[in-house]
What we know:
By secondary structure, this protein is of the alpha/beta class. It folds into two domains: about 1-180 and about 360-375, Glycogen Phosphorylase B (Rossmann fold, 3-Layer(aba) Sandwich); about 180-360, Glycogen Phosphorylase B (Rossmann fold). It has 15 helices and 13 strands. It has a seven-stranded parallel beta sheet, with helices on both faces. It is globular and about 65 Å long. The model has no long low-confidence stretch (mean pLDDT about 95).
Amino acid sequence: MKKIIYWSPYLGHIGTKKSTLNSANGLSVYGKDKFDVKLINALGEWNDINEIKTVSFFKNLYNKLPQGGFLKSRISFLIIFLLSILPLYKLLKKDKPDYLIAHLITSLPIFLFKIFKFKTKLILRISGYPKLNFIRKFFWKLCSKNIHLITCPSIELKNQLSKLNIFENKKIVVLYDSVINIKEVNKQKNDPLSNEITKSNYLLAIGRLTKQKNFNLLINAFYEFNKINNNYKLLIIGEGEENKKIISRINQLKLEHKIILLGFKKNVYKYLKNSKAFILSSLWEEMGFVIIEAASCNTLIISSNCPNGPSEFLNYGEAGYLFNNNSVNDLVQNLIKFDREEKNIKYNKILLAKKNVKKFTIFNHYKELKKILDNK
Protein backbone atom coordinates (compact mmCIF):
# COMPACT_ATOMS: atom_id res chain seq x y z
CA MET A 1 0.00 0.00 0.00
CA LYS A 2 1.41 3.36 -1.03
CA LYS A 3 1.51 6.21 1.46
CA ILE A 4 0.21 9.52 0.10
CA ILE A 5 0.36 12.78 2.05
CA TYR A 6 -1.31 16.03 0.98
CA TRP A 7 0.18 19.42 1.87
CA SER A 8 -2.31 22.27 1.35
CA PRO A 9 -2.48 24.95 4.09
CA TYR A 10 -5.08 27.56 3.12
CA LEU A 11 -6.67 30.82 4.25
CA GLY A 12 -10.32 31.74 3.80
CA HIS A 13 -12.83 30.33 1.32
CA ILE A 14 -10.85 29.27 -1.74
CA GLY A 15 -11.52 26.70 -4.45
CA THR A 16 -8.24 24.89 -3.83
CA LYS A 17 -9.54 23.81 -0.41
CA LYS A 18 -12.38 21.96 -2.09
CA SER A 19 -10.24 20.39 -4.81
CA THR A 20 -7.63 19.21 -2.27
CA LEU A 21 -10.26 17.59 -0.08
CA ASN A 22 -12.04 15.99 -3.03
CA SER A 23 -8.75 14.67 -4.40
CA ALA A 24 -7.70 13.16 -1.08
CA ASN A 25 -11.19 11.81 -0.40
CA GLY A 26 -11.45 10.23 -3.85
CA LEU A 27 -8.08 8.56 -3.46
CA SER A 28 -9.05 7.32 -0.01
CA VAL A 29 -12.47 5.96 -1.05
CA TYR A 30 -11.86 4.56 -4.53
CA GLY A 31 -8.31 3.45 -3.78
CA LYS A 32 -8.78 2.28 -0.20
CA ASP A 33 -6.96 -1.00 -0.88
CA LYS A 34 -4.08 0.69 -2.70
CA PHE A 35 -3.42 4.00 -0.93
CA ASP A 36 -3.00 5.16 2.65
CA VAL A 37 -4.01 8.83 2.46
CA LYS A 38 -3.31 11.57 5.00
CA LEU A 39 -3.76 15.33 4.97
CA ILE A 40 -1.40 17.65 6.86
CA ASN A 41 -3.27 19.94 9.24
CA ALA A 42 -0.55 22.57 9.63
CA LEU A 43 -2.08 25.15 11.98
CA GLY A 44 -5.64 23.92 12.42
CA GLU A 45 -7.07 24.89 9.02
CA TRP A 46 -8.34 21.31 8.54
CA ASN A 47 -9.72 20.82 12.07
CA ASP A 48 -13.27 20.24 10.78
CA ILE A 49 -12.28 17.37 8.47
CA ASN A 50 -13.49 13.89 9.43
CA GLU A 51 -13.41 11.90 6.19
CA ILE A 52 -9.63 12.00 5.76
CA LYS A 53 -6.94 11.05 8.27
CA THR A 54 -4.98 14.15 9.27
CA VAL A 55 -1.51 14.77 10.67
CA SER A 56 -1.59 17.85 12.89
CA PHE A 57 1.35 20.18 13.55
CA PHE A 58 -0.34 23.00 15.53
CA LYS A 59 -4.09 22.45 15.87
CA ASN A 60 -5.16 25.70 17.52
CA LEU A 61 -3.35 28.50 15.69
CA TYR A 62 -5.40 28.93 12.51
CA ASN A 63 -8.02 31.29 13.96
CA LYS A 64 -5.24 33.50 15.36
CA LEU A 65 -3.64 34.10 11.96
CA PRO A 66 -4.08 37.53 10.29
CA GLN A 67 -6.65 37.18 7.50
CA GLY A 68 -8.09 39.51 4.88
CA GLY A 69 -6.10 41.47 2.34
CA PHE A 70 -2.80 40.92 0.58
CA LEU A 71 -0.45 42.00 3.39
CA LYS A 72 -2.18 40.02 6.15
CA SER A 73 -2.30 36.89 4.03
CA ARG A 74 1.41 37.14 3.25
CA ILE A 75 2.19 37.46 6.97
CA SER A 76 0.09 34.36 7.64
CA PHE A 77 1.81 32.41 4.86
CA LEU A 78 5.18 33.31 6.35
CA ILE A 79 4.04 32.13 9.81
CA ILE A 80 2.81 28.82 8.35
CA PHE A 81 6.09 28.41 6.47
CA LEU A 82 8.33 29.03 9.49
CA LEU A 83 6.31 27.00 12.00
CA SER A 84 5.95 24.03 9.65
CA ILE A 85 9.60 23.59 8.57
CA LEU A 86 10.65 21.25 11.38
CA PRO A 87 7.38 19.25 11.69
CA LEU A 88 7.24 18.65 7.94
CA TYR A 89 10.89 17.60 7.85
CA LYS A 90 10.35 15.15 10.73
CA LEU A 91 7.20 13.73 9.12
CA LEU A 92 8.94 13.05 5.81
CA LYS A 93 11.91 11.44 7.55
CA LYS A 94 9.84 9.30 9.92
CA ASP A 95 6.82 8.25 7.81
CA LYS A 96 8.68 8.05 4.49
CA PRO A 97 5.53 8.50 2.37
CA ASP A 98 5.77 7.43 -1.26
CA TYR A 99 4.39 10.79 -2.44
CA LEU A 100 3.87 14.26 -1.05
CA ILE A 101 1.31 16.17 -3.11
CA ALA A 102 1.77 19.92 -2.54
CA HIS A 103 -1.13 22.22 -3.43
CA LEU A 104 -0.55 25.49 -1.53
CA ILE A 105 2.42 27.27 0.06
CA THR A 106 4.44 24.91 -2.09
CA SER A 107 7.66 26.85 -1.52
CA LEU A 108 8.17 25.04 1.82
CA PRO A 109 8.16 21.43 0.56
CA ILE A 110 10.14 22.47 -2.54
CA PHE A 111 12.72 24.12 -0.27
CA LEU A 112 12.98 21.04 1.98
CA PHE A 113 13.34 18.67 -0.97
CA LYS A 114 16.12 20.86 -2.35
CA ILE A 115 18.07 20.89 0.94
CA PHE A 116 17.45 17.33 2.14
CA LYS A 117 17.23 13.91 0.54
CA PHE A 118 13.96 12.09 1.09
CA LYS A 119 12.71 8.77 -0.22
CA THR A 120 9.45 10.54 -0.92
CA LYS A 121 8.61 11.84 -4.39
CA LEU A 122 7.32 15.42 -4.55
CA ILE A 123 4.38 16.26 -6.81
CA LEU A 124 3.86 19.98 -7.33
CA ARG A 125 0.17 20.63 -7.92
CA ILE A 126 -0.36 24.00 -9.57
CA SER A 127 -3.87 24.82 -8.38
CA GLY A 128 -4.37 28.22 -9.93
CA TYR A 129 -2.86 30.75 -12.28
CA PRO A 130 0.68 31.22 -10.91
CA LYS A 131 2.28 34.65 -10.99
CA LEU A 132 5.42 33.73 -12.86
CA ASN A 133 7.67 36.53 -11.67
CA PHE A 134 11.45 36.32 -11.83
CA ILE A 135 11.86 35.03 -8.25
CA ARG A 136 9.35 32.19 -8.68
CA LYS A 137 10.78 31.12 -12.05
CA PHE A 138 14.31 31.19 -10.66
CA PHE A 139 13.28 29.19 -7.56
CA TRP A 140 11.41 26.57 -9.61
CA LYS A 141 14.28 26.26 -12.06
CA LEU A 142 16.78 25.87 -9.22
CA CYS A 143 14.73 23.11 -7.59
CA SER A 144 13.28 21.44 -10.71
CA LYS A 145 15.43 18.31 -10.38
CA ASN A 146 14.00 17.67 -6.92
CA ILE A 147 10.40 17.76 -8.13
CA HIS A 148 9.08 14.44 -9.44
CA LEU A 149 6.07 15.79 -11.38
CA ILE A 150 4.19 19.02 -11.97
CA THR A 151 0.43 18.67 -12.51
CA CYS A 152 -1.56 21.44 -14.22
CA PRO A 153 -5.33 22.01 -14.10
CA SER A 154 -5.57 22.92 -17.81
CA ILE A 155 -3.92 22.24 -21.15
CA GLU A 156 -3.34 25.98 -21.59
CA LEU A 157 -1.25 26.18 -18.41
CA LYS A 158 0.70 23.04 -19.33
CA ASN A 159 1.58 24.57 -22.71
CA GLN A 160 2.57 27.85 -21.06
CA LEU A 161 4.90 26.11 -18.59
CA SER A 162 6.42 24.00 -21.36
CA LYS A 163 7.39 27.13 -23.32
CA LEU A 164 9.20 28.60 -20.30
CA ASN A 165 11.64 25.67 -20.07
CA ILE A 166 11.59 25.70 -16.27
CA PHE A 167 10.88 21.99 -15.98
CA GLU A 168 11.52 19.05 -18.26
CA ASN A 169 8.48 18.65 -20.51
CA LYS A 170 8.08 15.01 -19.51
CA LYS A 171 7.52 16.13 -15.91
CA ILE A 172 4.56 18.37 -16.77
CA VAL A 173 1.17 16.64 -16.97
CA VAL A 174 -2.46 17.73 -17.08
CA LEU A 175 -4.58 16.66 -14.12
CA TYR A 176 -8.03 18.22 -14.05
CA ASP A 177 -9.21 19.38 -10.64
CA SER A 178 -11.53 17.26 -8.54
CA VAL A 179 -14.46 19.67 -8.42
CA ILE A 180 -17.76 17.87 -8.79
CA ASN A 181 -19.45 15.33 -6.56
CA ILE A 182 -22.50 14.39 -8.66
CA LYS A 183 -24.55 13.16 -5.68
CA GLU A 184 -23.83 16.36 -3.76
CA VAL A 185 -24.83 18.57 -6.72
CA ASN A 186 -28.08 16.70 -7.36
CA LYS A 187 -29.01 16.91 -3.68
CA GLN A 188 -28.11 20.53 -2.98
CA LYS A 189 -29.39 22.12 -6.18
CA ASN A 190 -32.96 21.20 -5.20
CA ASP A 191 -32.82 22.93 -1.82
CA PRO A 192 -35.46 25.69 -1.58
CA LEU A 193 -34.77 29.38 -2.21
CA SER A 194 -36.72 32.34 -0.89
CA ASN A 195 -39.78 33.30 -2.95
CA GLU A 196 -38.29 36.72 -3.60
CA ILE A 197 -35.31 35.19 -5.39
CA THR A 198 -37.10 32.37 -7.24
CA LYS A 199 -39.68 34.79 -8.68
CA SER A 200 -37.04 37.14 -10.09
CA ASN A 201 -34.99 36.93 -13.27
CA TYR A 202 -31.46 37.06 -11.98
CA LEU A 203 -27.92 36.74 -13.21
CA LEU A 204 -25.41 35.25 -10.79
CA ALA A 205 -21.76 35.80 -9.90
CA ILE A 206 -19.82 33.85 -7.27
CA GLY A 207 -16.36 34.37 -5.81
CA ARG A 208 -14.22 36.08 -3.21
CA LEU A 209 -14.63 39.85 -3.27
CA THR A 210 -11.07 40.49 -4.42
CA LYS A 211 -9.28 42.25 -7.25
CA GLN A 212 -8.87 38.94 -9.11
CA LYS A 213 -12.64 38.41 -9.45
CA ASN A 214 -13.07 41.88 -11.02
CA PHE A 215 -16.57 42.53 -9.68
CA ASN A 216 -16.32 46.28 -10.31
CA LEU A 217 -16.13 45.56 -14.03
CA LEU A 218 -19.17 43.30 -13.73
CA ILE A 219 -21.12 46.00 -11.87
CA ASN A 220 -20.20 48.64 -14.47
CA ALA A 221 -21.24 46.33 -17.30
CA PHE A 222 -24.51 45.44 -15.58
CA TYR A 223 -25.22 49.16 -15.17
CA GLU A 224 -24.93 49.63 -18.95
CA PHE A 225 -26.91 46.48 -19.71
CA ASN A 226 -29.64 47.55 -17.28
CA LYS A 227 -30.24 50.66 -19.41
CA ILE A 228 -31.12 48.37 -22.33
CA ASN A 229 -32.97 45.69 -20.39
CA ASN A 230 -33.97 46.27 -16.77
CA ASN A 231 -35.74 42.93 -16.30
CA TYR A 232 -32.78 41.31 -14.54
CA LYS A 233 -31.25 41.47 -11.11
CA LEU A 234 -27.64 40.60 -10.34
CA LEU A 235 -26.85 38.43 -7.31
CA ILE A 236 -23.27 38.20 -6.03
CA ILE A 237 -22.25 35.43 -3.63
CA GLY A 238 -19.00 35.87 -1.72
CA GLU A 239 -17.11 37.88 0.86
CA GLY A 240 -13.71 39.55 0.90
CA GLU A 241 -11.61 42.65 1.34
CA GLU A 242 -13.26 44.61 -1.49
CA ASN A 243 -16.73 44.40 0.07
CA LYS A 244 -16.92 48.12 1.00
CA LYS A 245 -15.52 49.19 -2.35
CA ILE A 246 -18.13 47.13 -4.20
CA ILE A 247 -20.99 48.45 -2.05
CA SER A 248 -19.78 51.99 -2.68
CA ARG A 249 -19.80 51.45 -6.45
CA ILE A 250 -23.30 49.94 -6.34
CA ASN A 251 -24.54 52.98 -4.39
CA GLN A 252 -22.83 55.41 -6.78
CA LEU A 253 -24.68 53.84 -9.69
CA LYS A 254 -27.95 53.71 -7.70
CA LEU A 255 -28.31 49.97 -8.22
CA GLU A 256 -29.09 49.05 -4.61
CA HIS A 257 -32.36 47.36 -5.64
CA LYS A 258 -30.89 45.64 -8.69
CA ILE A 259 -27.60 44.22 -7.35
CA ILE A 260 -27.79 42.11 -4.20
CA LEU A 261 -24.75 40.98 -2.20
CA LEU A 262 -25.60 37.69 -0.49
CA GLY A 263 -22.30 37.09 1.34
CA PHE A 264 -20.83 33.61 1.66
CA LYS A 265 -23.18 30.70 0.92
CA LYS A 266 -22.26 27.10 1.60
CA ASN A 267 -24.71 25.82 -0.99
CA VAL A 268 -24.26 27.67 -4.29
CA TYR A 269 -25.92 25.00 -6.43
CA LYS A 270 -29.49 26.06 -5.64
CA TYR A 271 -28.67 29.61 -6.74
CA LEU A 272 -26.98 28.37 -9.92
CA LYS A 273 -29.89 26.11 -10.85
CA ASN A 274 -32.39 28.97 -10.72
CA SER A 275 -30.27 31.67 -12.37
CA LYS A 276 -30.68 32.74 -15.98
CA ALA A 277 -26.92 32.81 -16.46
CA PHE A 278 -23.72 32.66 -14.46
CA ILE A 279 -21.09 35.35 -15.09
CA LEU A 280 -17.35 34.92 -14.44
CA SER A 281 -15.60 38.31 -14.66
CA SER A 282 -12.19 37.24 -13.31
CA LEU A 283 -8.90 38.73 -14.47
CA TRP A 284 -7.29 35.30 -14.13
CA GLU A 285 -8.42 31.82 -13.06
CA GLU A 286 -7.41 28.21 -13.25
CA MET A 287 -10.20 26.34 -14.97
CA GLY A 288 -12.64 28.26 -12.78
CA PHE A 289 -14.31 25.90 -10.30
CA VAL A 290 -17.54 27.82 -10.29
CA ILE A 291 -18.08 27.61 -14.06
CA ILE A 292 -17.79 23.83 -13.71
CA GLU A 293 -20.34 23.95 -10.90
CA ALA A 294 -22.58 26.15 -13.07
CA ALA A 295 -22.36 23.71 -15.98
CA SER A 296 -23.26 20.82 -13.66
CA CYS A 297 -26.50 22.70 -12.83
CA ASN A 298 -27.34 23.27 -16.53
CA THR A 299 -26.71 26.98 -16.15
CA LEU A 300 -25.67 29.11 -19.10
CA ILE A 301 -22.19 30.60 -18.67
CA ILE A 302 -20.81 34.01 -19.62
CA SER A 303 -17.07 34.23 -18.91
CA SER A 304 -14.03 36.38 -19.52
CA ASN A 305 -11.42 34.74 -21.73
CA CYS A 306 -8.87 35.20 -18.94
CA PRO A 307 -5.90 32.87 -18.50
CA ASN A 308 -5.74 29.89 -17.85
CA GLY A 309 -8.74 27.67 -18.46
CA PRO A 310 -12.25 29.18 -18.80
CA SER A 311 -11.90 29.43 -22.60
CA GLU A 312 -10.73 25.84 -22.75
CA PHE A 313 -13.69 24.61 -20.68
CA LEU A 314 -16.17 26.57 -22.82
CA ASN A 315 -14.74 25.18 -26.07
CA TYR A 316 -13.59 28.69 -26.95
CA GLY A 317 -17.13 30.03 -27.10
CA GLU A 318 -19.13 27.03 -28.33
CA ALA A 319 -20.18 25.99 -24.81
CA GLY A 320 -20.91 29.48 -23.47
CA TYR A 321 -20.27 33.17 -24.08
CA LEU A 322 -16.73 34.54 -23.94
CA PHE A 323 -15.90 38.23 -23.61
CA ASN A 324 -12.52 39.93 -23.83
CA ASN A 325 -10.75 39.98 -20.47
CA ASN A 326 -11.31 43.22 -18.50
CA SER A 327 -13.51 44.76 -21.21
CA VAL A 328 -16.74 46.37 -19.97
CA ASN A 329 -17.99 46.99 -23.49
CA ASP A 330 -17.44 43.41 -24.66
CA LEU A 331 -19.19 42.02 -21.57
CA VAL A 332 -22.17 44.33 -22.26
CA GLN A 333 -22.31 43.11 -25.87
CA ASN A 334 -22.27 39.49 -24.71
CA LEU A 335 -25.03 40.17 -22.18
CA ILE A 336 -27.14 41.63 -24.98
CA LYS A 337 -26.33 38.65 -27.20
CA PHE A 338 -27.25 36.22 -24.41
CA ASP A 339 -30.54 38.03 -23.81
CA ARG A 340 -31.54 37.97 -27.49
CA GLU A 341 -30.14 34.57 -28.47
CA GLU A 342 -32.56 31.86 -29.65
CA LYS A 343 -33.39 29.16 -27.11
CA ASN A 344 -31.99 26.29 -29.19
CA ILE A 345 -28.57 28.00 -29.41
CA LYS A 346 -28.54 28.51 -25.64
CA TYR A 347 -29.55 24.89 -25.11
CA ASN A 348 -26.68 23.62 -27.27
CA LYS A 349 -24.20 25.73 -25.30
CA ILE A 350 -25.53 24.35 -22.02
CA LEU A 351 -25.33 20.78 -23.36
CA LEU A 352 -21.71 21.14 -24.52
CA ALA A 353 -20.65 22.62 -21.17
CA LYS A 354 -22.43 19.82 -19.29
CA LYS A 355 -20.45 17.23 -21.28
CA ASN A 356 -17.20 18.86 -20.17
CA VAL A 357 -18.14 18.47 -16.50
CA LYS A 358 -17.28 14.75 -16.66
CA LYS A 359 -13.56 15.58 -16.71
CA PHE A 360 -13.87 17.26 -13.31
CA THR A 361 -15.71 14.64 -11.29
CA ILE A 362 -14.06 13.10 -8.22
CA PHE A 363 -13.96 9.67 -9.87
CA ASN A 364 -12.35 10.88 -13.10
CA HIS A 365 -9.74 12.78 -11.09
CA TYR A 366 -9.05 9.63 -9.07
CA LYS A 367 -8.51 7.54 -12.23
CA GLU A 368 -6.02 10.03 -13.68
CA LEU A 369 -4.20 10.55 -10.37
CA LYS A 370 -3.98 6.78 -9.85
CA LYS A 371 -2.16 6.46 -13.19
CA ILE A 372 0.36 9.05 -12.01
CA LEU A 373 0.90 7.37 -8.64
CA ASP A 374 1.22 3.97 -10.31
CA ASN A 375 3.87 5.48 -12.60
CA LYS A 376 1.84 4.81 -15.72
